[in-house]
Design goal:
CATH architecture of the largest domain: 3-Layer(aba) Sandwich
CATH class of the largest domain: Alpha Beta
Structural class: alpha/beta
Family: Belongs to the ABC transporter superfamily.
Number of domains: 4
Membrane topology: Multi-pass membrane protein
Largest sheet: 6 strands, mixed
Bound molecules: adenosine-5'-triphosphate
Keywords: ATP-binding, Cell membrane, Membrane, Nucleotide-binding, Sugar transport, Transmembrane, Transmembrane helix, Transport
GO cellular component, one term: plasma membrane
Number of helices: 21
Strand order of the largest sheet: 8-9-10-5-11-12
Main location: membrane
Strand content: 5-15%
CATH topology of the largest domain: Rossmann fold
């Protein structure tokens, strides 16, 4: 929201925010149509209860007044019955009781049903959010703006529940209000106008402040993310080592205080303004309320309305006053949250750029001609420089290729392109002559097994940590044993108290944390467990000790026989084992060939190889 937009602009934004409400209603309905209908019926009945109670009270008083007027004398218990049946007065009192007690019961049933529907809806939304995040491109998820939106959407998936209750309260109050206003209009039409005067300024004021609040929150999202991040870095087992040793505690606390303070100042300034105006509007509505009260008292004294009608009108006014207050507050909260619905639903409307082909071709099994990068260029969306440019590279079937190059040369990006985490900005990637965009994404990825250098350390049991490589086969112990054996993870598992069932990581109390190299063995097992035609390992042995590295690679060569394998490594002892080594520099290929070829050529690779070898002499 831009500053200086004026009240008109704010109101438009506020009304626009409500446009997402029908979507919320539809998804709530879809979560439980039966539950939703039952809730609506209950709310409607409860909405009509207050006017009914007031009306019965009016009848009771009129009945009592009529009795006194008829000179029936003081009221006796025996008066409760008349000719063997209940007297009209007793009947009315009983009815009043039934209305009040009935509402108490209905409100409990209603709350229960709403909780059921709310939880069901939140669960559905939570799952849908994960599916949508999965469908989006990695490049989309990596942008700060989408991360913000995702963060807000995550909050919303829980908030939807409170919105359900608020919307129903509002609808119920609206029905009660209409019924009460109709009742008031029947006895004293002039009062309705007076009430409208009390309502309008509050309504406009609230709408205005709602939009200001949203604008403020939106502006502050980036700062709030930074605050959350500082809170994470400052109070977290993972960062504690460095924070302690570098003495960062005071620095982080200071930065936190500065950022949180700036947010606090802005939000307090708005809260003060809002409180001031709220108080003024409150006085205005109190004035209207007492004006109306005086008016009906005067008419009663004049004898224009009966005592029963006076009771009804006074009761209705009191209720209407409370209802206005509540509805304005409710409207504020609904509009406020509805503005955030925009984040939720706009996240669901994001369309991935890495798309499925209309008529997918089957992935070649086995790969016969290989993988060809044809003049491939890649630039991150919204970024200036090219990460890869004019890249021509062929990976033959059954070949083991090592990608080497300095930090930032583009090695990981090549791997991401091969698995279609990104699509090339220019050029094509062909598998057996077919553009890889022609395969169904799931089919392509089923045939590719990638372990990234920043692989995920799942705080799940060891078996699942390996099984995620091919989750549908997670129960296949024979396959798991083979993968664990090949990756040297078997030794790690054997040492775990609960073996394969041992929860790993430090997130849960039952978890066992592993060393970097142990985690890496588990991750490599994941790749073997996947058993894909194309195996890609991005710095798979960086955390392994020398003996483990040699053992892993001896097995890697055995296992990758007959399948295509690509690995990235900065360790030339490992790299030299590849059939072909591709040296990358600033997004292009500098040289390529076997270790012996490249050493003979005496170029960049040979220089780097000697440099590393000398360091060990
Ligand atoms: N999500 C991203 N958004 C924008 N730029 C990125 C992103 N990820 C990587 N880059 C840039 O792309 C370039 C290539 O990165 P890449 O990870 O492919 O390099 P690499 O050769 O694997 O490096 P390393 O040896 O350090 O792992 C780098 O200059 C990096 O700054």
């Amino acid at each position: 929201m831009r500053r200086g937009q004026g009240i008109g602009g704010h109101l438009v934004a506020n009304v626009a925010s409500l446009r997402r409400l029908p979507q919320l209603v539809a998804s709530l309905w879809a979560a439980g149509p039966g539950l939703a209908s039952a809730i609506l019926v209950l709310r409607l009945i409860r909405a009509l209860q207050p006017p009914a109670v007031l009306y019965v009270a009016k009848l009771i008083i009129d009945e009592i007044v009529a009795r006194s007027a008829a000179g029936a004398g003081s009221f006796q218990l025996a008066d409760l019955q008349q000719g063997g049946a209940l007297s009209p007065l007793a009947g009315l009192i009983l009815l009043e009781f039934a209305l009040v007690a009935g509402d108490a019961v209905l409100s409990r049933v209603d709350r229960l049903l709403e909780q059921m529907l709310g939880e069901r809806h939140a669960n559905r939304l939570g799952a849908a959010l994960i599916r949508q995040a999965d469908a989006l491109d990695l490049a989309q998820l990596e942008t700060g703006e989408i991360q913000d939106r995702l963060q807000r959407a995550r909050n919303q998936s829980v908030m939807g529940n409170s919105l359900l209750g608020q919307m129903l309260n509002q609808a119920q109050d609206a029905v009660t209000l209409i019924a009460l206003v109709a009742g008031v209009a029947a006895f004293a039409p002039a009062l309705v106008l007076l009430l409208a005067f009390a309502l309008l300024p509050s309504l406009l004021g609230e709408a205005y402040f709602n939009s200001l609040r949203y604008g403020l929150d939106k502006e502050a999202t980036a700062r709030r993310r930074e605050i959350d991040y500082i809170r994470y870095v400052g109070a977290n087992a993972r960062t504690a080592k460095e924070v302690k040793l570098f003495g960062l505690g005071a620095y982080l606390a200071g930065r936190f205080t500065t950022l949180a303070g700036s947010l606090h100042v802005a939000s307090m300034a708005l809260a003060r303004k809002r409180a001031l105006w709220g108080a003024l509007f409150g006085i205005l509505s109190a004035l209207s309320y007492y004006g109306a009260y005086g008016y009906i008292a005067f008419r009663a004294v004049q004898g224009d309305i009966s005592l029963g009608e006076l009771t009804f009108l006074a009761g209705a006014l009191m209720r209407l006053n409370a209802l206005f207050e509540r509805m304005i507050l409710g409207l504020t909260q609904i509009a406020d949250r509805a503005l955030y619905l925009e984040d939720l639903y706009s996240f669901f409307e994001l369309v991935p750029g890495v798309t499925e082909p209309e008529r997918p071709l089957p992935f070649p099994e086995p790969i016969r001609q290989g993988i060809v990068f044809e003049n491939v260029g890649f630039r991150y969306p919204g970024k200036e420089g090219w990460v890869l440019r004019n890249l021509d590279l062929t990976i033959r079937p059954g070949e083991t290729v090592a990608l080497v190059g300095e930090n930032g040369a583009g090695k990981t990006t090549i791997v991401k392109l091969m698995s279609r985490l990104y699509d090339p900005t220019e050029g094509r990637i062909l598998i057996d002559g077919i553009d890889c965009r022609a395969f169904a994404l799931a089919d392509l990825r089923r045939h590719v097994g990638v372990i990234f250098q920043d692989f995920v350390k799942y705080n799940f049991p060891a078996a699942v940590n390996i099984g995620v490589g091919r989750i549908e086969a997670v129960a296949d112990r024979e396959r798991m044993d083979a993968a664990a054996e090949a990756s040297l993870a078997a030794d790690v598992i054997a040492r775990l108290p609960a073996g394969y069932d041992q929860v790993l990581g430090d997130m849960f109390t039952s978890g066992v944390e592993l060393s970097g190299g142990e985690w890496q063995r588990i991750a490599i097992a994941r790749a073997y467990f996947r058993d894909a035609a194309l195996l890609i390992l991005d710095e798979p042995t960086a955390a392994l000790d020398a003996r483990a590295e040699a053992a892993v690679f001896a097995r890697f060569r055995d296992l990758s026989r007959g399948r295509t394998a690509v690995f990235i490594s900065h360790r030339f002892g490992t790299v030299r084992m590849a059939d072909r080594i591709v040296v990358l520099d600033r997004g292009g290929i500098l040289e390529a060939g076997s270790h012996d070829d490249l050493m003979r050529r005496d170029g960049h690779y040979a220089a780097l190889f000697r440099l590393q070898a000398e360091a060990f002499q």
